[in-house]
UniProtKB/TrEMBL annotation:
ABC transporter domain span: 2-220
InterPro entries in the cross-refs: AAA+_ATPase, ABC_transporter-like_ATP-bd, ABC_Transporter_VariousFunc, P-loop_NTPase
UniProt source species: Agathobacter rectalis CAG:36
Keyword vocabulary terms for this entry: ATP-binding, Nucleotide-binding, Transport
Protein name: ABC transporter domain-containing protein
């Protein structure tokens, strides 16, 4: 279980997150809110990419600052902008990121093949990234996020650039993954949230204004 406790973030004298507290278990959490509400800040803090100003995050009861790299090994994070090596093939790109994530060689080959199939890029595995469309790059990013089989997966606008068929494929993928993983999904496409999320998290002006199980039952 992942628990955010009274998370605050300040830039100078301006506080952009005002004491966010949320408990996450296995399932899909739809993170929604207006632009500038603090969604990306929360995701970056959860991913240990950005330091919080105060508060703490517990993973299975232990402060993530104590866990350090052991926590980051549990995280898969897809930000809005991912940098790629344009002359790498899709397969080599995923292998490279898997290697950086510490996936051993025995598992890496099978993991790479599996995520390529999951995002419908297996037939393009030997094509260079520079030949990919925006939607294909987005699918490649999803594959990279999942290659190390993380326990917590955080997606920031993952369906941008995907056509309806690929959006449906992505929804099916995260439904399958959510049986054993915590998935946080931020998107402006509310229909995506409504179709797949188990919980809705609404952030406005850096405040948690709703945390609700789909169907109206509050998640206490």
């Amino acid at each position: 279980m992942l628990e955010l406790i009274d998370i605050k973030k300040r830039y100078g004298s301006k506080e952009v997150l005002h004491g966010i507290s949320i408990k996450f278990e296995n399932g899909i959490y739809g993170l929604i809110g207006p632009n500038g509400s603090g969604k990306s800040t929360i995701m970056n803090i959860m991913s240990d990419v950005l330091d919080m100003s105060s508060g703490k995050i517990l993973y299975n009861g232990t402060d993530i600052k104590e866990l350090d790299d052991r926590y980051r090994e549990k995280i898969g994070f897809l930000p809005q902008n991912v940098g790629y090596y344009p002359n790498f093939t899709a397969k080599k790109t995923i292998e490279y990121f898997g290697y950086l994530r510490g996936v051993n060689k025995k598992e890496l080959d099978s993991n790479v093949e599996q995520v390529l199939r999951d995002v419908n890029l297996y037939e393009n595995r030997n094509d260079k990234v520079k030949s990919f469309s925006g939607g294909m790059k987005q699918r490649l990013g999803i594959a990279i996020t999942c290659v190390a089989n993380p326990e917590i997966i955080i997606f920031d606008e993952p369906t941008v650039g995907l056509d309806p068929e690929e959006r449906a494929r992505f929804k099916n993928l995260i439904r399958k993954l959510s049986k054993t993983k915590t998935i946080v999904l931020s998107t402006h496409i509310l229909s995506d949230v409504e179709e797949v999320a188990d919980y809705i998290i609404l952030i406005k002006e850096g405040c948690l204004t709703k945390f609700e199980k789909i169907g109206g039952k509050d998640n206490e």
